[in-house]
Amino acid sequence: MSTVAVLLAGGSGTRLKRADNKVYLNIGDRPLLAWSLDVFERSPLIDRIVLVVREGDDERAQRIIATAGITKVDRLVRGGPTRHESEHAALEAIAPEILDGSIDLVLIHDAARPFVRQSLLARIVHTAAERGGAVPGLPVDGDFLLRVTEDDTAPTPVPTDQLRRVQTPQAFHAAPLLSAYRRASADGFHGVDTAGSIERYSDLHVELVPGAHDNVKITYVEDLLLAQSLALAWDPDEFDP
């Protein structure tokens, strides 16, 4: 089975109050992007990496790839203005190999999640290969949330026992994934994440697998502080705590 990891690194640092793309910020002794690339570089389950970058970031990305000793990146793809368009661009870049059966499974991951344990990655790959798709998720903290509206209607409690906080990487059979994104593009649909497009435009079964609390996404300043703390003692080969 041939598996390709798509790493989305075309975001920004707006919510971190930084002008630069956050994947180039240092976490510990190396850029955030290097941490994320290393997740897939060290996995025997991942054959190749497709790195999605913003316009103008190619040279910086290539320097990090070389410095970090990353060998699995076989192409850089220019990202679009939305996450959905960036995902679609990556899929179209490898579409010939998906359609001829050379690529069986595709993982899509946010580069802003640098701390993925190999045990979590293996759980996702094996589940997706067997069931069609796999998405990691965690229970929502608290007994309930409140749903509010723009009118004067009182907030409505929403029980949290059947809700999950979805993470990446998300993995899917490659051919149905590509087909789903082509159908979504024809409809002008932009999903908020990969699983959303799959649910809407394919018949693939998507299995929820246990996520990990340290698989944090770097979005706000406090996340950056947490990431610096995690980097000090990080062992990617350690099983989930």
Describe this structure as you would to a colleague.
This protein has 241 residues and is of the alpha/beta class. The protein has a single domain (3-135, 165-232), classed as Spore Coat Polysaccharide Biosynthesis Protein SpsA, Chain A, CATH 3.90.550.10. 35% of the residues lie in helices and 24% in strands. It has helices at residues 32-41, 58-67, 83-93, 95-99, 118-131, 174-187, 194-201, 221-232, and strands at residues 3-9, 26-27, 30-31, 48-53, 73-78, 105-110, 132-139, 144-147, 156-159, 164-166, 170-173, 205-210. The strands form 3 sheets. Strands 1, 4, 5, 6, 7, 10, 11 and 12 form an 8-stranded mixed beta sheet that branches. A two-stranded antiparallel ribbon has the order 2-3. Strands 8-9 form a two-stranded antiparallel ribbon. A hairpin with an 8-residue loop joins strand 8 (144-147) and strand 9. Helix 6 packs across helix 7. The longest helix is centred in the middle third of the chain and has 14 residues, at 118-131. It is globular, with a radius of gyration of 18 Å. The two termini are 29 Å apart. The model has no long low-confidence stretch (mean pLDDT 91).
